[in-house]
Amino acid sequence: MGESKLAGQFFDAAIGLLQKVRDEDAAEVAAAGTAIAEAVANGNRLFAFGAGHSSLAAQDVVYRAGGLALMNLLAVPGAVGVDVMPATLGSALERVDGLACAVLDSSPASAGDVLIIVSLSGRNALPVEMAMNARALGLTVIGVTSVAYATETKSRHVSGTFLKDHCDIVLDSRIAVGDAELTHEGIEAPFAPASTVVTSALMQATMAAAAEELVRRGIEPPLLRSGNVDGGHEWNGRVMTEYGDRIFFRH
């Protein structure tokens, strides 16, 4: 079988975007890594949130081999992924005012903690309200979003603002509005979204920057090992015991 022209075009598009965010978001990624390292060093907690497919990048840094054990998923019931039935309900929940406030109030998050909010468009009520309320509580908010949406679409929050307007640090995924990299004759809708690839890369680059900053400060990064390598479970058990008061996915 021969190679797929469109598959190759998608890889090229994704690689181009990855190179773009590597070069153009470098300072912001370093700043986000430093904020996370400071929270770890100061005894604070780490949280990540995303709705719909944006939750994939948030989940990618929680309880995984090679990841920081302290990263917790701040989940909004029904809004995390496509497991809710019908799937369209998840999209509707993103537009509900007051939901983010209720979730934050019932979470362990408090002043000094770090919250990463992932939202490609950054226009819906849920991520905007989440950022506003988190900052009001004294959290450091890192937004991972496509800033282009703020100039090419209208906010769905009552304030008329976007996620990027309520963050201490913004990581711009540079994804074009519509999140589809390819078009082709005979295919009416654009296709092949790259936001998950790029956003997950931004998240992992930020975790790497945090680990680098922790080592610079003389602190061993609390990383998890794979449970599929010898000694992995024992290693993870020690890390989770040492940092148990800041890990909320283990009970």
Automatic annotation (TrEMBL):
Pfam families noted in UniProt: SIS_2 (PF13580)
InterPro entries (alphabetical): RpiR-like_SIS, SIS_dom, SIS_dom_sf, SIS_GmhA/DiaA_subfam, UPF0309
Domain SIS span(s) in chain numbering: 36-219
Highest taxon above the source species: Bacteria
SUPFAM superfamilies according to UniProt: SIS domain
Alphabetical list of HAMAP family matching this protein: UPF0309
PANTHER family named in the record: PHOSPHOHEPTOSE ISOMERASE (PTHR30390:SF7), SEDOHEPTULOSE 7-PHOSPHATE ISOMERASE / DNAA INITIATOR-ASSOCIATING FACTOR FOR REPLICATION INITIATION (PTHR30390)
Assigned protein family: Belongs to the UPF0309 family.
Protein name: UPF0309 protein RGF97_13560
Source organism of the structure: Streptomyces roseicoloratus
